Amino acid sequence: MRFSSTVTGCAILLVATGCAGPPWQPSTPPDEPKAVAKPAPPPSPQQIAEALAELNKVFQGEYERILDERGSRSDVAPRATAFAALEAALRRLGMIVESRDADGGTLTVAAPAPRPLSLDEWRRVVQDDGPMMMRILCPKLGEYCRKIRFEPEDYVIAINAIVLGAANNSSRISLTTRMREIVERPGVPRREYPPPTGVRMALDKIWTEYERERAAQAKR
Predict the structure, then answer these.
(1) Grouped pLDDT means (10 residues each) for the chain, 220 residues
(2) Closest to 82 (Cα-Cα) out of 4, 155, 166, 196
(3) Where are the domains of the chain?
(4) What CATH number labels 45-219?
(5) What's the whole-model pTM score?
(6) Residue 47: which of 150, 141, 187, 186 has the closest Cα?
């Protein structure tokens, strides 16, 4: 009890008369040097490769799901008519024909990314899919993940189409797409699958243009 009374009395006197604090507690603590946080070391090439491989796997899963939903459609038009409409639609979207076999119903087109999307549409893709990419990359790469950019000029977009004949002289059209990297990155997994939002937007754009061409065919 005496110890408590002494400390309390000193505290009261400190306010009233400025009495010094107890010897074990200096009235003015000495300046302490502030600890400077060291920047985290950059990830190793193996860590970067593993993070990008995981991103590719997620993109592949989304890509396959989107293709199941939007990658194919039927048309009452004969195969030759559907093939001609699809080729015209893809050309108008800026795609360049690499190979075509009208009799077999196969067509391959390609163009520098982000085609068939515009630059504004590509910005929407980055805005929509960027947070998902960071959630995958940042736990493995730390702050370094924010330095990773997927610019469209690093890729060529290739689209493969198959137009098959169906019952009652109709047709069935199927589309697939891949990204071709045109910048060498030794030790880094190649990215083949476009961002999910980009896949959805590109497919919707192709089908819209296809329907426009089919309507033009009907008028002709």
Answers:
(1) 36 36 48 65 89 95 97 97 98 98 97 96 94 94 86 91 96 96 80 94 98 94
(2) 166
(3) 45-219
(4) 3.30.530.50
(5) 0.79
(6) 141
